[in-house]
Specification:
With about 525 residues, the chain is an alpha+beta fold. Helices cover about 25% and strands about 25% of the residues. Helix 4 crosses helix 6.
Length: about 525
């Protein structure tokens, strides 16, 4: 018999004898069990508790930087750094080893290039933890670095310049490094000091979380000192539900070692699966004020001029069937629109256009007071109807410019809130003669003034917060605050005043439109 069993039996017998001597008849108690083994202690789980960049290990830093560990991400913001993000991290926790790409990492000693996302793996026994480590620098916006061959400058909008591009990652998208070529873009905007650019890759590439494509643009937004008007237009277009709105985001641009300012990197307007989704037998055209500078264009029976985005003007000429089809379709639409029976839903303008889409495009432009854009029209297939999209050119919206007696009003004129910019413009002058179209506009307006406006303001506020450090660097590079630029009718001394002016103009505009649309 084992010793613990003997002890238990002796204790039981002693208790029973004591109770009998007292004259009591009771059931004997349960035997007392003496533990024979120590309790099982659970192993300490694998964990990473700290991840930092100390000034001791990184002399380029003025102070220690503690990273944020959240889920499977580790993030840090180090404004004092720009493009050189080679750092030595220090980390601690419960783990046996740490690796990057299979190479052992020693805290405080192992160096990594954090200009792109670095994946760390921590091991303990058979367990592993994986973290994506992302370091944002300078202003917190993604940094785009371009190095042209032999530091060659981009001098015009015709000649491509080859080079390499590096795009910093974000917490939700991978970075990119590779070859590209670039040239200038834009019409009037090309002649400002801060230049807009177009660049393209050899093969389709996704960047900053946007779908793969070869062609991209960098908008300078030089006239727009809020740096927000493009965002206003694109966000409102997406909320309204246009078939495609160009995706994009603000970035910092460095070119050949020099800082160029805050840019808006976005999708180039073209026909593609992830952009304007046009079938092979459709077309994408632009009503273009610079039509005579383009290689291929056509004029209509109403003296409007269109240039081609699809088919590519390099692939067709004026004798090509696609050219003739696009020209004839638009002419048929214009003829029907300005005919006596234009209101007839079977034979009038509604036979040729997506009426709801035309109403949505109109409200986007009017709500933002956009007085200078070259409208795009798309026929997605020959069985479909004309649609107005994508939206573009918002630099002179939200009170920056106004029509004058001889082209454009100049300072100290003001941009009128109470003015319909598009209602009496091409096509809409006739569409508003049809009560059925007016009813659709009024119906769509209910969405714009409530749901769309609320969401628009919320998203713009988030962008303001995101670019608040970037704008300061931009205006150090381009000190134009307080100065009139081009046809600007306002020139505030601070960025915050520019931001507030655009927002206030929008709210006044919505109030005025709400009262006017009821009268139309």
């Amino acid at each position: 018999m084992k010793k613990p069993d003997l002890i238990n039996r002796l204790i039981t017998m002693a208790v029973a004898a004591l109770l009998v001597s007292c004259g009591k008849s009771v059931e004997p108690p349960e035997p007392v069990i003496v533990p024979t083994e120590k309790p099982v202690v659970a192993p300490i789980p694998l964990s990473v508790t700290t991840f930092s960049f100390t000034a001791a290990a990184n002399p380029k830093l003025s102070a220690d930087v503690n990273c944020r560990i959240f889920g499977d991400s580790i993030t840090a913001f180090i404004p004092e750094l720009q493009t050189d993000v080679t750092l030595i991290p220090t980390f601690s926790g419960e783990f046996d080893k740490a690796e990057v790409n299979g190479v052992i990492q020693t805290p405080g000693l192992s160096q990594q290039d954090f200009s792109r996302t670095v994946v760390y793996r921590f091991y303990k026994g058979n367990d592993v933890l994986t973290f994506r480590v992302y370091v944002s620098t300078f202003t917190g916006l993604p940094i785009v670095t371009i190095q042209t061959v032999n530091m060659q400058p981009v001098l015009d909008r015709e000649n491509w310049v080859e080079g390499d591009i590096s795009i910093q990652p974000t917490p939700t998208s991978a970075g990119f490094e590779g070859a590209m070529k670039m040239r200038g873009r834009g019409n009037a905007t090309w002649f400002y000091e801060k230049k807009p650019y177009r660049f393209k890759f050899e093969s389709k590439t996704p960047i900053l979380g946007m779908p793969s494509d070869k062609e991209w643009v960098l908008l300078a937004d030089y006239c727009d000192k809020s740096l927000l008007r493009t965002s206003y237009g694109f966000v409102l277009s997406r909320l309204a539900g246009l078939p495609w709105t160009p995706r994009g985001q603000h970035v910092e641009l460095f070119m050949n070692g020099a800082y160029q300012g805050t840019y808006y990197l976005c999708e180039h307007v073209k026909a593609a699966t992830n952009r304007a989704n046009i079938a092979a037998n459709g077309f994408l055209i632009e009503r273009d004020n610079y039509w005579n500078l383009e290689p291929l264009w056509f004029g209509t029976v109403r003296n409007n001029h269109y240039t081609f985005r699809y088919p590519d003007p390099d692939d067709i000429n004026a004798d090509h069937p696609y050219y003739k089809f696009a020209r004839d379709f638009v002419n048929s639409f214009e003829t029907a629109l300005y005919s006596d029976d234009f209101k007839d839903p079977e034979t009038g303008y509604a036979r040729y256009i997506d009426v709801q889409n035309f109403a949505q495009w109109f409200l986007i432009q009017e709500m933002l007071g956009n007085i200078d854009t070259n409208p795009y029209m798309a026929l997605e297939s020959r069985e479909g109807k004309l649609k107005m999209y994508p939206v573009w050119d918002f630099e002179w919206s939200l009170g920056l410019a106004a029509p004058g007696n001889n082209g454009w009003a100049m300072p100290p004129a003001t941009s009128p809130v109470a003015m319909a910019y598009w209602k009496n413009n091409v096509y809409y002058d006739r569409l508003f003669s049809d009560p059925a179209f007016v009813d659709i506009v009024r119906e769509e307006w209910q969405k714009f003034k409530y749901a769309h406006l609320t969401q628009l303001l919320a998203e713009i506020d988030a962008i303001v917060e995101k670019i608040k450090l970037s704008q300061a660097e931009n205006f150090r590079r381009w000190p134009i605050l307080g100065q009139y630029v081009s046809v600007n009718l306002v020139a505030f001394p601070t960025w915050k005043e520019e931001v507030n002016y655009a927002r206030h103009f929008l709210l006044q505009r919505v109030e005025w439109l709400d009262s006017e649309i009821k009268k139309w």
